[in-house]
């Protein structure tokens, strides 16, 4: 059976002048539907009906055939029926052929995909319909106006997701059997509807539609390869989620995670992103192949060259965070906010300017230290492997600071909870004011309320700096000790690596800050001199701009 697709594209567009040949994301608007139709498994002939020679020339570049329509069929008020009839009959006469199916495909639907077009054709043929039209389901509370009265188009008021949909014609595609086509009609009696995927329903009528289409055409698949557990903490997870929260508006986001690291998986599930789990490298690469991402963002610490080279050989743009391994040399970009490097490689970006603060740290006000320090905040990240939390409380007990309100925030991966709660219970009986919290949603609020904060030397230091809260810092391990911001900023009071820091050291530091208001004020000012709130946009632009440049180079 023979199928012909007619693409009507006249010159006179008033909403967006010359829109059919205007470049949309680097390609003429009309080219998108021509390509979708040309690659269909079923369409035998793709014809552009136009009154404009420029449109005709551009359509020829994309291998479409041309039917020049007479001026009488190019007027604003002329419906599509006579235009389509004219084109089909002209081709049939010229080629001495009779078509069985006629498709009308609007050039203003650039998101239409060949796979969707073929599914629609299959439904048409298998269902033995006269006509099938593309539609979009609308689940809203609709009303109509009739005789100056408003009436609902629903039977019962419900939440949107529970309403029966109303279907709106998109105008993208109409398929009819040739027998129903006349000068005044393209629609048969036995009609069915075909619901398009949401993205493909965009119909460009004005500049807002154009902007929407441009954004959707630039939409890419981005995979976050990240893990979190009791050993490596959740800092990598939080950074990935922070980036994903901004990227998801314009791109499709996936998380690929090691199924043995359940703690990180639980946290990502709270945000409802698609998660693909794997057990070994073979399964991981199979998963990546299924997704076929454009960008892979690794936040898994040090990588090896074989892993990164394989990602690149699969055609992925590779971004690595905090990668000090040999694989970093093969990544397209390496971003490392926690370390400094005086002579970084061209594709490496180091230092505090690349720290990605969570959204909440843009909301809460900066700290203005008070003369009296009445509130102490103790938090050592998601896992606190050295139990610095308990060590700090022992320092408070040693100092006998019963008049200080101490808030303790435990991470999801903190293990010795029962022992800590038992210890805290004893301290409370002795008159200490201690409040222990878990799964805090707004850490920025807790930090901004504290007069003094005690934490580890990881990403939390940057969060503290964004608010200016006077801070005591202890490194959990040798890797954290290499985070140089505490030294370069001269802001936090740094005590060293956990195994070198005693209860006495912590007690001495706490007492010093409580008694020295000018020192706390100076610490806050030193921290606030670093502008961290523009960093997230900087990192996103760095990733995407480098990707676009790489993509252009790859396709040249």
Work out the strand percent. 15-25%
Major beta sheet summary: 7 strands, mixed
Poorly predicted runs are: none
The radius of gyration computed from the alpha-carbon positions, rounded to a whole number of angstroms, is 31 Å
**Percentage of residues in helical conformation:** 25-40%
Give the count of helical stretches: 18
How far from one another are the termini? 39 Å
General description of the model:
- With 556 residues, this protein is an alpha/beta fold.
- It is 35% helix and 22% strand.
- The chain contains 18 helices and 24 strands.
- The longest helix has 21 residues, at 535-555.
List keywords for this structure.
single chain, 556 residues, 7-stranded mixed beta sheet
Reconstruct the topology from this structure.
Layout: E1 3-8, E2 23-24, E3 27-28, H1 29-38, E4 45-50, H2 53-61, E5 65-68, H3 80-95, E6 101-105, H4 114-127, E7 131-138, E8 143-146, E9 149-152, E10 166-177, E11 191-195, H5 207-217, E12 221-226, H6 235-247, E13 252-258, H7 262-269, E14 275-278, H8 281-291, E15 295-299, H9 305-313, E16 317-321, E17 333-336, E18 348-350, E19 375-379, H10 388-399, E20 405-410, H11 417-429, E21 433-438, H12 443-449, E22 452-456, H13 460-467, E23 471-475, H14 478-481, H15 485-489, E24 493-497, H16 503-515, H17 517-528, H18 535-555
Parallel strand pairs: 1-4, 1-6, 4-5, 7-11, 12-13, 12-15, 13-14, 15-16, 16-17, 17-18, 19-20, 19-22, 20-21, 22-23, 23-24
Antiparallel strand pairs: 2-3, 6-10, 7-10, 8-9
């Amino acid at each position: 059976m023979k199928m012909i697709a007619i693409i009507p594209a006249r010159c006179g567009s008033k909403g967006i002048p010359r829109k059919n040949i205007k470049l949309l994301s680097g390609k003429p608007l009309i080219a998108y539907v021509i390509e979708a139709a040309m690659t269909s498994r079923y369409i035998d002939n793709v014809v552009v009906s136009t009154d404009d020679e420029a449109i005709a020339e551009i359509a020829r570049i994309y291998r479409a055939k041309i039917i020049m329509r007479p001026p009488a069929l190019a007027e604003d008020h002329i419906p599509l029926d006579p235009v389509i009839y004219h084109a089909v009959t002209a081709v049939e006469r010229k080629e001495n052929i009779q078509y069985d199916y006629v498709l009308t495909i609007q050039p203003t639907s650039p998101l239409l995909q060949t796979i969707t077009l073929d599914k629609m054709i299959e439904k048409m043929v298998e269902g033995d319909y006269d006509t099938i039209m593309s539609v979009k389901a609308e689940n809203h509370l609709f009303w109509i106006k009739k005789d100056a009265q408003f009436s609902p188009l629903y039977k019962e008021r419900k939440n949107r997701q529970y309403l029966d949909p109303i279907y709106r014609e998109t105008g993208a595609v109409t398929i009819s059997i040739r027998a129903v086509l006349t000068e005044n009609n393209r629609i048969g009696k036995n009609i069915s509807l075909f619901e398009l995927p949401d993205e493909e329903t965009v119909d460009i009528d004005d500049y807002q539609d154009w902007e929407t289409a441009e954004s959707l055409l630039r939409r890419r698949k981005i995979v976050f390869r990240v893990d979190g557990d009791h050993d490596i903490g959740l800092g990598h997870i939080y950074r990935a989620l922070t980036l994903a929260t901004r990227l998801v508006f314009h791109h499709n986001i996936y998380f690929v995670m090691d199924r043995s690291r359940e703690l990180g998986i639980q946290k990502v599930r709270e945000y409802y992103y698609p998660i693909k789990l794997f057990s070994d490298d073979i399964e991981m690469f199979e998963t990546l192949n299924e997704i076929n991402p454009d960008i892979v963002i690794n936040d898994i610490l040090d990588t090896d060259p074989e892993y990164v080279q394989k990602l690149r050989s699969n055609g992925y743009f590779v971004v690595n965070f905090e990668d000090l391994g040999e694989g970093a040399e093969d990544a397209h970009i390496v971003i490392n906010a926690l370390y400094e490097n005086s002579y970084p490689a061209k594709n490496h970006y180091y230092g505090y300017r690349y720290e990605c603060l969570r959204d909440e740290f843009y909301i809460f006000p900066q700290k203005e230290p008070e003369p009296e320090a009445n509130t102490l905040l103790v938090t050592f990240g998601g896992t606190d492997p050295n139990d610095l939390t308990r060590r700090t409380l022992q320092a408070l007990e040693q100092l006998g600071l019963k008049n200080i309100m101490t808030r303790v925030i435990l991470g999801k991966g903190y293990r010795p909870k029962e022992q800590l709660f038992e210890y805290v219970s004893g301290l409370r009986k002795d008159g200490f004011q201690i409040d222990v919290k878990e799964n805090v949603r707004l850490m920025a609020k807790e930090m901004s309320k504290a007069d003094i904060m005690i934490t580890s030397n990881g990403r939390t230091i940057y969060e503290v700096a964004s608010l200016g809260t006077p801070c005591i810092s202890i490194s959990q391990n040798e890797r954290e000790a290499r985070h140089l911001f505490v030294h370069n900023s001269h802001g936090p009071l740094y005590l060293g690596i956990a195994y070198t820091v005693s209860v006495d050291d912590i007690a001495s530091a706490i007492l010093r800050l409580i008694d020295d208001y000018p020192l706390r004020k100076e610490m806050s000012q030193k921290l606030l001199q670093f502008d961290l709130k523009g960093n997230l946009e900087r990192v996103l632009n760095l990733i995407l701009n480098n990707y676009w440049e790489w993509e252009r180079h790859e396709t040249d």
